[in-house]
Structures are given as structure tokens and as C-alpha cells.
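Bug #77: duplicate submission created two jobs. Keeping one. Sequence:
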Amino acid sequence: MPVPTTRPLRDDGDRAGTPLPLASLPHSARVRTTRAAAGRRGDTTAEIIRRLRDVDHPPRLVALGVALHHFTEIIAGRVPLERAQAHAATTVLTKQVAVLLSADDDAAWRRAARLAVDPQRVATSDGRTASELCGDDWPAIEREARRRAIETFEGVAHYGAESLAQLASIRAYQSSAPWWGTDAWNRLIDCWLGDARLSPVLAASLRRAPECAPLEVLRDILR
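Kept job's structure:
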């Protein structure tokens, strides 16, 4: 299928002075964020984010939060992927984002946001691109991913990379699914290994690279 063209995203953001909307967080995260800010009425988003800087945010969870916000949440209900496929695609993007964010600067966040709107991004372990994975639904996915990418550009300009990392880690913490990179995934693997006889090498492989496992194995783990 033809690959849709995309217009370049501006690194400086079209509305760099606009505050990052707290509404971009899931409702449960907004509630937790507000409580973490000591529950004071009239707190601005900036004040809430500043108080979140004391919260630990492991790099892998930050990358997961970015992948969820810029891809996984968008394709849910739009792209006909089964749970195992969505899990594998999320793991691929999480690892790609983690590499980009290892630079630990504002520009790294812009590169991570641009990655989400790249139709040629490798999205699966067998080499399919994001546009191939999403099929005819890619144009709608790309539009929403672009909108969120612009919000990220604005957030970096307004609050800085550290604050974006806090928000991303909260998103990952708040997710109920056992995504790769979380304690929930490791616990799920432990539980599954209790019923399956696998060599230590295969078990380690599932912890490290579940996106490379056969879909039937992922289906069984996530059932």
C-alpha cells in the first residue's frame, strides 16, 4: 500500500508558550497527580509538575509511557490488532524510545515524538513498518500521533524534559496492562513459567524480548 506523506514537525512547537494540558493524562493519573500535589485548590499544572520531580521515574517506564501515549492508546479500538500484537508493537516502540531518550536532553524528546509519526518506523519484530501494521487506519493514527507530538514539543519548551519524564512514568505506572518493562510483566512471566517447562535461556528471552516470541506464546501468557 502507498505510504502517506507527512509534513515536518517543528522542533520549536507551533504554540511554544501554551502550557502542557494536564488533560493529556488518563483520568486516574490526573487524580493521582492532583493528590500528589498536596490537594491544594488553585494549583497550576506547572506547580503540580514541579512537585512531581521528587517521584522516581525509571528510564524504561518513561519510554513505556511515551510509547503508550503516542501509539498504543491511539490504535486501541481503531486498528484491528489482537492483544498479543499490540503488546509486541508496544514493546518494539518502547525500546526504540528508550534508545532515543538515553541522550537525556530536550532534543531527545522531540526525536521520540517525531518517531511516532514516521510511517516507515519499524513497528514489529518481523520488520513491518508502522503504516503497514496499521493498514488503512494509518492516516487517522498519524493525525492523532502528530497532535500529541506537537503537545510534547510544547511541553518540552514550557516545562523541560524532566517534567515530561515524570508525566510519562505516571502514565506507565497507571496502566493496568502488563507491559514489557514493568514489574507486572515480570510477575506474569513468573506465573506463566510456573505452568510451563522452559529452559532458563528461553525464560530469560521472554523477559528480555517478548516481541520476538511467537504470537501463540504471547497469547498464552496474556490470556
